[in-house]
């Protein structure tokens, strides 16, 4: 178990450093991420490196037994870089420049930025590749976080290069982008621009490729640095910190290039449901690289600085969220940052060592968590515990939220997370995977809004159902190919066989958040074996060809038409849902399909605010709710070593248990005095 934080010693006089190391030891810190924003300090001028201070810090840490996750420092170029080479500055779609004075002001595709970054990385890696303190490499920082897109001339040139690689020729690009529409036909790659500000809707194929390109440019930067680190002879694992479901970077493609996934996660303490969003994020990053434990690279000990209101974490909440991460596959808990800054934009951001000192709740909780983590034995790696998967696909995310659709209010992540929450409330373990991976042993697969469906993915979903799996798909699914073009033959062209339905029309409903005065239907009530439910956003007109209708619309223009269909395949089943149910509606459908697929909770009958998650033979239970609960789980407490037979959890209390060999868990009870509530 790693435990630690970003460490920014350059913000402090050198006399403080020994105190830092002493305090780190007191807190049980095992590793720090060093030098993430140190470019200006390491390289004060082009061609001039100052490593003396970094040598001293690393040696000091090493003497103190603290390992180093060494950063490549390329995330924030120093002022001299853009003063000498203004072409490295990125631009927005209007052509406005992102100037220095903050961070991340670099155009990822700029050859000059890449040369400068490469020189820095080569120098750092060359110097520290064999330093015994360095156990991991931290490439850049949160690629794309602030600057989602760059439309600069560097991006223009790189976009043309990227398109030349992707398409056999300009005719193929024209066909893919459908440029016969609106006289957009290109006669040469040299005419193509990034989708800069334009009078009206831009070409959807171009927009989709620009998103792919953007993710690929950031990935190219990562790969360049990784190769330089390896070329210097470094053998330690290399990572770059992800941000969960971060739309601009297709982490499903990135994951194969990191030795381990590391992730930054900042749930909002003001949101009582944010622990569920955090659970989603942890399950997503675990699913990206399921065989290798991931690392929680950044979280906050307490309040942040960057939300409109930066509430403190409740007592115990920081440890509860840490236990959640471990339970969902993390092998380390790190924070931003070690010592609270005394200047700069983040001076109010909490840290392991608060500005208010060690006589603080934050410090006491930091020390207590360090003690607990130090007691944990090695936990199982690569356990596959989820019987349920939700399909999550970045390219589909980009395409389904493009403009000019029947319903322009679709929020892919929000809908996916609604399904996730319904499963989470039932204590069902879930993976989030691309459709290509649904054959990895799941009983139930949910594929909401899978608008862009590649042939291989359609084949994987079909194969899953044919092999006895239970699928729930729709609405607005199987509409376009990977270029965002309709396929011949209508909609659901690839899945209609397995689903036994066709979609005639999408039936957009007024979005729930539209102004109150907006005319039109807002909801589509429907009813089935799970009772009455409410659909939103879309109420599709289905033609049932080879399925039974499980639920019908009960109001509005589609009254009496199918809302949920099922095609039984013997062992498995394929359901199609014609609407986006609201929170309660998704819960009703989830309960129904969990029963149909025979999926059991990790621990039965826990209250919805209590989480239970498996990691092989390790069970983690966390109480995020406001009441004391008890649960009749048995095993060995991996922090205290005690044999456990039944637990009581106060708010934010948690246990990590090794289950007895039989791995049986008895039904638990809810809030005290209300068994099963
Ligand atoms: C992250 C970033 C850190 C720090 C932190 C504050 O996005 O990687 O450097 O700024 O947010 O919450």
From TrEMBL:
Pfam families: Glyco_hydro_42, Glyco_hydro_42C, Glyco_hydro_42M. Substrate binds at residues 103, 141, 306. Gene3D superfamilies: 3.40.50.880, Glycosidases, Golgi alpha-mannosidase II. GO terms for biological process: galactose metabolic process. Residues 609-659 form the Beta-galactosidase C-terminal domain. GO terms for molecular function: beta-galactosidase activity. Keywords: Glycosidase, Hydrolase. Its EC number is 3.2.1.23. The active site is at residues 142, 298. Residues 386-599 form the Beta-galactosidase trimerisation domain. It comes from the Bacteria. Residues 6-375 form the Glycoside hydrolase family 42 N-terminal domain. It catalyses: Hydrolysis of terminal non-reducing beta-D-galactose residues in beta-D-galactosides. GO terms for cellular component: beta-galactosidase complex. Belongs to the glycosyl hydrolase 42 family. This is Beta-galactosidase. It comes from Agromyces sp. G08B096. The lineage of its organism: Bacteria, Bacillati, Actinomycetota, Actinomycetes, Micrococcales.
């Amino acid at each position: 178990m790693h435990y630690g934080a970003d460490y920014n010693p350059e913000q402090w006089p050198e006399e403080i450093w020994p105190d830092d190391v002493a305090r780190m030891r007191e807190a049980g810190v095992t590793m720090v991420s060093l030098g993430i924003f140190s470019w200006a300090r390491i390289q004060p001028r082009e061609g001039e490196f100052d490593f003396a201070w970094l040598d001293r810090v690393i040696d000091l840490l090493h003497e103190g037994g603290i390992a180093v996750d060494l950063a490549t420092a390329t995330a924030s170029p120093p002022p001299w870089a853009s003063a000498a080479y203004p072409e490295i500055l990125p631009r927005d779609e209007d052509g406005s420049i992102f100037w220095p004075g903050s961070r991340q002001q670099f155009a990822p595709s700029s050859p000059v930025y890449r040369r400068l970054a490469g020189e820095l990385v080569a120098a750092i890696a060359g110097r520290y590749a064999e330093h015994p303190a360095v156990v991991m490499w931290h490439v850049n920082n949160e690629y794309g976080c602030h600057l989602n897109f760059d439309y600069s001339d560097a991006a223009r040139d790189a976009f043309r290069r990227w398109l030349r690689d992707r398409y056999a020729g300009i005719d193929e690009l024209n066909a893919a982008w459908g440029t016969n529409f609106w006289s957009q036909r290109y006669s040469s790659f040299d005419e193509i621009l990034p989708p800069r500000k334009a009078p009206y809707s831009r070409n959807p194929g171009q927009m989709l490729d620009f998103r792919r390109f953007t993710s690929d440019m950031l990935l190219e930067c990562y790969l360049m640095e990784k190769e330089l680190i390896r070329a210097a002879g470094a053998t330690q694992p290399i990572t770059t910190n992800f941000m969960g479901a971060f739309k601009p970077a297709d982490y499903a493609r990135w994951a194969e290039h990191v030795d381990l996934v590391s992730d930054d996660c900042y749930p909002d303490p003001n949101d009582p449901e944010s622990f569920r969003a955090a659970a989603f994020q942890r399950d997503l990053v675990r699913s990206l690289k399921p065989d290798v434990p991931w690392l929680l690279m950044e979280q906050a000990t307490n309040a942040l600085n960057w939300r409109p209101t930066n509430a403190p974490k409740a007592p115990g909440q920081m440890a509860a969220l840490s236990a959640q991460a471990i339970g969902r596959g993390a092998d380390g808990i790190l924070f931003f940052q070690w010592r609270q800054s005394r200047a700069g934009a983040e001076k109010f951001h909490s840290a392991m060592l608060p500005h208010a000192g060690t006589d603080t709740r934050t410090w006491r909780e930091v020390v207590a968590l360090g003690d607990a983590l130090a007691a944990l034995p090695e936990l199982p790696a690569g356990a596959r515990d989820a019987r349920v998967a939700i399909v999550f696909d970045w390219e589909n995310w980009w395409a389904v939220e493009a403009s000019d659709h029947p319903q322009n209010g679709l929020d892919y992540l929000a809908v996916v997370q609604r399904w996730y929450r319904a499963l989470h409330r039932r204590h069902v373990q879930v993976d989030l995977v691309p459709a290509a991976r649904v054959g990895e042993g799941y009983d139930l697969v949910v594929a909401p809004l899978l608008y862009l469906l590649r042939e291989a993915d359609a084949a994987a979903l079909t194969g899953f159902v044919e092999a006895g799996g239970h699928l729930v798909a729709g609405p607005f699914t199987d509409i376009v190919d990977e270029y965002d073009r309709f396929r011949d033959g209508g909609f659901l062209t690839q899945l209609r066989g397995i689903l036994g339905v066709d979609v005639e029309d999408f039936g957009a409903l007024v979005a729930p958040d539209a102004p109150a005065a907006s005319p039109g239907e807002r909801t589509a009530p429907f009813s089935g074996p799970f009772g009455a439910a409410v659909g939103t956003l879309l109420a599709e007109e289905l033609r049932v060809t080879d399925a039974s209708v499980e639920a019908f619309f009960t109001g509005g223009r589609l009254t009496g038409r199918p809302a949920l269909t099922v095609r039984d395949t013997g062992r498995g089943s394929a359901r199609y849902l014609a609407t986006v149910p609201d929170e309660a509606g998704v819960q009703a459908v989830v309960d129904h399909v969990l029963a149909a697929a025979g999926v059991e909770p990790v621990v039965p009958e826990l209250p919805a605010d209590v989480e239970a998650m498996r990691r092989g033979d390790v069970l983690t239970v966390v109480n995020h709710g406001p009441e004391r609960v008890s649960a009749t789980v048995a095993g060995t407490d991996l922090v205290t070593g005690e044999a456990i037979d039944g637990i009581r959890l106060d708010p934010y209390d948690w246990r990590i248990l090794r289950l007895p060999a039989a791995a049986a868990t008895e039904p638990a009870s809810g809030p005290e005095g209300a068994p099963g509530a």
